[in-house]
Design goal:
This protein is of the alpha/beta class. It has a single domain (about 5-175), classed as Rossmann fold. Helix content is about 35%, strand content about 20%. It has helices at about 15-30, 55, 70-75, 95-100, 105, 130-145, 165-175, and strands at about 5-10, 35-40, 80-85, 115-120, 145-155. Helix 1 runs parallel beside helix 7 (about 165-175). Bound molecules: flavin mononucleotide (FMN). Flavin mononucleotide (FMN) binds near residues 16, 86, 87 and 123. Flavin mononucleotide binds next to helix 1.
Length: about 180
C-alpha cells in the first residue's frame, strides 16, 4: 500500500549535496506510487523547543507560532519520515534538529509514523557520521520508528560534489524498497 513519506532536508542549500541525495531517494520512492512530500527545513523559520510543556496540557499543540505550523499537519499524515542532513559539527544541522526537538509536542500521544530513514553527507570520512548514527538510533527507539535505512556520503564538500556517487543509486534503491 502506498505510504505518505515526509522528507525533511536540513541543508539551507538548494540543490546542495543533501538535497541531491534526498531527491535520489524520492525518485525511487515515487516509482511505487508513494505520496512523497519534501520540505527544505534548512531555510524555514523554526525556533528551538523552549520546554514550556504547554503541549502536554493543550492536546499536543505547540505554544510557538512559526513554520512548524506547516510541518505538524504533514507529520500527522506521514507513515514514514526521512531525515536528510549535512553533518555540522558531528551532528545533524541545527535547523533539522530544531524540527526533531519540536516533535516533542505530540510524541506522548504518538505519531502515525512507523518507519524512518537517515540520509547524511559530510566533507569528512566515515567516522564523521558515527555520533549522528548513534543519535538517530536513539531517536528511533524513543519515537518508535523502525529505521529502514541509513545512507551516508562522505568526502563531499562543495555543492554538486555528490554527483556521480554510487550512494545516489543506493538512495534510489532504498526509496524503491518502500511499499
Ligand atoms: C557549520 C558547518 C559545520 C560542518 N561540520 C562538519 C563536520 O563536523 N564534519 C564534516 O565532515 N563536515 C562538516 N561540514 C561540511 C558539510 O557537511 C559538507 O560541506 C556537506 O557536503 C554540505 O552539504 P550541503 O551541500 O547539502 O549543504 C560542516 C559544514 C558547515 C557549514
Amino acid at each position: 500500500m502506498p505510504k505518505n513519506i515526509l522528507v525533511l532536508v536540513g541543508s539551507p542549500k538548494q540543490n546542495g549535496n543533501t538535497e541531491i541525495l534526498a531527491d535520489a531517494f524520492i525518485k525511487g520512492a515515487t516509482k511505487n506510487g508513494n505520496n512523497v512530500k519534501k520540505l527544505r527545513v534548512g531555510k524555514m523559520k523554526i525556533s528551538g523547543c523552549i520546554d514550556c510543556k504547554y503541549c502536554f496540557t493543550h492536546d499536543d499543540t505547540c505554544s510557538q507560532r512559526d513554520d512548524m505550523d506547516k510541518i505538524y499537519p504533514l507529520v500527522d499524515d506521514a507513515d514514514m519520515i526521512v531525515l536528510a542532513t549535512p553533518i555540522y559539527f558531528f551532528s545533524m544541522n541545527a535547523q533539522l534538529k530544531a524540527v526533531v526537538d519540536r516533535l516533542n509536542a505530540g510524541y506522548k500521544s504518538g505519531y502515525k509514523i512507523s518507519k524512518s530513514a537517515l540520509l547524511a553527507v559530510a566533507s569528512g570520512g566515515d567516522s564523521m557520521f558515527e555520533p549522528l548514527i548513534k543519535m538517530y538510533e536513539l531517536i528511533c527507539k524513543y519515537l518508535k520508528w523502525e529505521s529502514v535505512g541509513i545512507i551516508t556520503v562522505g568526502k563531499v564538500e562543495n555543492k554538486g560534489d555528490i554527483e556521480g556517487r554510487n550512494e545516489l543509486l543506493l538512495a534510489e534503491q532504498l526509496g524503491e524498497s518502500i511499499k
